[in-house]
Design a protein that fits this description.
The chain has 101 residues and is mainly alpha-helical. It contains three helices and two strands.
Length: 101
C-alpha cells in the first residue's frame, strides 16, 4: 500500500487539474493564436504561468485504485500489475485465470 499522503496529494492534483482545465485551455488558445498581437499572447503566457503548478494535467500521476502503487499501472484497468495478479489469483476478476504451462 502506498503512503496515504502520496495518494491524497495526487487526488488534490486531480481536483486542481479539473478546476483549472477550462481556464488553462482558454489561455493556451490565446497564447498559440498567431493572429493576436504579441503583447496579448505574452500576457496570456504570464497568466498561464501564474496558475498553480499542480493544476497542470501532466503533474497528475497514474496510481492503482486498489493499492495506490504508482508503477506498473494498466490504464485500461486502472490498477497495477501486482494488484491485478493478486485479484486474479483469488478469482475476483471474471474470465481471468492463472496461466501455467
Amino acid at each position: 500500500m502506498a503512503k496515504k499522503s502520496a495518494v491524497e496529494r495526487n487526488l488534490k492534483r486531480q481536483r486542481l487539474a479539473a478546476k483549472y482545465a477550462a481556464k488553462r485551455a482558454a489561455l493556451k488558445e490565446i497564447a498559440r493564436d498567431t493572429e493576436k498581437p504579441v503583447e496579448e499572447r505574452f500576457a496570456a503566457q504570464l497568466k498561464l504561468a501564474d496558475l498553480p503548478r499542480n493544476s497542470a494535467p501532466s503533474r497528475v500521476r497514474n496510481r492503482c485504485q486498489v493499492s495506490g502503487r504508482p508503477r506498473g499501472y494498466y490504464r485500461k484497468l486502472k490498477m497495477s500489475r501486482v494488484a491485478l495478479r493478486q485479484l486474479a489469483s483469488h478469482g475476483l476478476i471474471p474470465g481471468m485465470v492463472k496461466s501455467s504451462w
